[in-house]
Write a structure and sequence with these properties.
- The chain has about 230 residues and is of the alpha/beta class.
- About 45% of the residues lie in helices and about 10% in strands.
- The protein starts with 8 loop residues before the first strand and ends in a 7-residue tail after the last helix.
Length: about 230
């Protein structure tokens, strides 16, 4: 990552970056059997697909609704329609586990005096519950939701919420996401994009040129602080 400017803040995506979106199904995997992995993957895929289609067509429904509909679709596809299981999975989604590397990375940034925040597609109540349940709320300066804008990432207006929050230029913010499309959107907006390539997959969206790629959040403190903080 270039040291041409001083990083004023680090902004994280929530779902899939700090919070493990597959932990909800993992808690009830025995009830789904062999369908657990496919249900979790399809649930996530349909949730994101809905957000992109709505934004592309100028429409909006909150992320909680999208999450419920995506789960209904995944359960129907895998013939696992059970009202009690559905309720348990939705409840679990509001209390997702943090990735093991999330809290140490946030704590290290706080120790270095670098403010951190979340910028997420999540609806505000969902985010509050999930962040508190994961024990991350005390390490964040702000939890920003797209909900007031009624638009989803990767629309530029969404990323502008972070520059407004910290009162700085895009190039002074490091934006961290495990979703390649999100890191690309952040880079296009002008953030110093960091893609957390947890799966070790092939490079997406030219992020080897547009941003910085790390295998986990364990690498983030060393990347950003303290040396690169000096500009």
């Amino acid at each position: 990552m270039s040291r041409r400017t001083q990083v004023q803040a680090v902004v994280f995506d929530a779902y899939g970056t700090l919070l493990d979106v597959h932990s909800a199904v993992a808690r009830h995997a025995a009830r789904l059997g062999a369908a657990a992995g496919p249900v979790s993957a399809l649930w996530r895929a349909k949730q994101l697909e809905a957000s992109w289609i709505l934004s592309a067509t100028g429409a909006y429904e909150n992320f909680a609704v999208l999450t419920e509909r995506a789960l209904d679709h995944a359960l129907a596809v895998h013939d696992a329609q059970d009202a009690t299981l559905r309720a348990d999975l939705l409840r679990a989604y509001r209390a997702l586990a943090a990735y093991p590397d999330a809290m140490p990375a946030l704590a290290a940034l706080r120790g270095a005096g670098v403010p951190a925040a979340i910028l997420s597609n999540g609806e505000p109540a969902m985010l509050r519950e999930a962040v508190a349940s994961a024990g991350l709320d005390g390490l964040l300066e702000a939890v920003l939701s797209v909900h007031p804008l009624r638009r989803y990432k990767p629309e530029p207006a969404v990323y502008a919420l972070a520059t407004e929050q910290f009162g700085c230029d895009p190039g002074e913010i490091a934006f961290v996401s495990a979703n390649g499309w999100d890191a690309f959107g952040a880079a296009r907006f002008g953030f110093r994009a960091v893609w957390v390539n947890r799966a070790g997959g092939p490079v997406e969206y030219g992020l080897d040129r547009l941003g910085t790629i790390i295998p986990s959040l364990d690498a983030l403190p060393g990347l950003l602080a303290p040396a690169s903080m000096r500009g």
